[in-house]
Amino acid sequence: MMKKILKEIKKYNRIIIHRHSNPDGDAMGSQIGLKNILKENFPKKEIFVVGDITKRYAFMEDSQMDVIPDSFYEGALAIILDSSSTNMVCDERYKLADKKIKMDHHIFLEKFADLELVDTSYESCCGLITAFAIACKLKINKLAAKSLYTGMVTDSGRFRYDSTSPRTMRLAGFLMETGFDLNEIFAELYADDFDAIKLKASFVLKIQFTKNNVAYIYTTKEEMAELKADTFSISRGMVATMSDIKGVNTWANFTETENGVLCEIRSKKYNINPIAVKYGGGGHAKASGATVADRETAMQMLDDLNNLEE
């Protein structure tokens, strides 16, 4: 499949790269990484990246998205990264493209591209993109490598999650050979200012537990308004505050927004992906998410998580 994807890439003069909305480090890293791999190897091609942005990963070099008209999709190739379903994709205009390619590492939910490379054995989409570049003998410059490494670090939990494999470390080492500064990445990812530390502390105090010891946090729209923090920093950013509590196998972070309740669910022990899928979401076996209509539905999801422990 990798060779087939490369063949299609070579055919098109204009390529537009998408990923999922509310991007995390893997979504941003794979998008920026692939963009710079293609620019390095095919300098005459037009390469664009589109989508929403998040303050959390604004530090990443070359993270500014392109603003392009609908007409750019005519006769173009769209590549969609790190997205298992159509409702995850950041810009639905990918449907206007002449051909569509999906490259993803999430559990398969639906086919929506002409060519699809889906491999859940990779810890990150960035790992998959790195393997693709190596298999196709494409040059990976320092900026592409730095971006891909950032995504590998974030999606593997600093190489702690059980999705990390010997291949993960080999690919990470390959990227490091380009000579980027690791300190630049880790300082931005994990060094917090004092206000951010206080914010995390306040969320630790919000943690509650179900009868079967599922930890959870629920943040209302009113609370969000008072916090004056971006949605990603609360929804995705605070779920990890519950990850190292002794005796807790499963945890969830619920965040109310104007578009519904964002649900980030995690587990050390159980496959929680079917629960995410049940509520219109998806992801990985032990790290998934969904957006539900209201608090009542979010609490139904929490009940389902609680029942895993029975």
The Rg value, from CA coordinates, equals: 19 Å
Low-confidence segments: none
Task: State the helicity in percent bands.
Answer: 25-40%
Shape: globular
Give the DSSP E fraction (strand runs of 2 or more residues).
Answer: 15-25%
| Major pleated sheet | 6 strands, mixed
Order of strands side by side in the largest beta sheet? 6-7-8-9-11-10
Span of the ends, CA to CA? 42 Å
**Classification by helices and strands:** alpha/beta
Average pLDDT number:
95
How many individual helices?
11
* Count of distinct strands: 11
The string of secondary-structure elements, in order, is HEHEEEEHHHHHEEHHEEHEEH
Explain what you see.
The chain contains 11 helices and 11 strands. The protein has 310 residues and is an alpha/beta fold. It has a 6-stranded mixed sheet with strand order 6-7-8-9-11-10. β8 and β9 form a beta hairpin. The radius of gyration is 19 Å and the shape is globular. The N and C termini lie far apart (42 Å).
In short:
The chain is α/β, with parallel strands linked by helices and 310 residues long.
Brief descriptors of the model:
single chain, globular, five-stranded parallel β-sheet, 11 helices, 310 residues, six-stranded mixed β-sheet, alpha/beta
List the helices and strands and how they pair.
Layout: H1 2-11, E1 14-18, H2 25-41, E2 46-49, E3 77-81, E4 99-104, E5 115-118, H3 125-135, H4 142-155, H5 166-176, H6 182-190, H7 194-204, E6 208-209, E7 215-219, H8 221-227, H9 231-235, E8 250-257, E9 260-267, H10 273-278, E10 282-283, E11 287-292, H11 295-307
Parallel strand pairs: 1-2, 1-3, 3-4, 4-5, 7-8
Antiparallel strand pairs: 6-7, 8-9, 9-11, 10-11
Helix pairs in contact: 2-3, 2-4, 3-4, 4-5
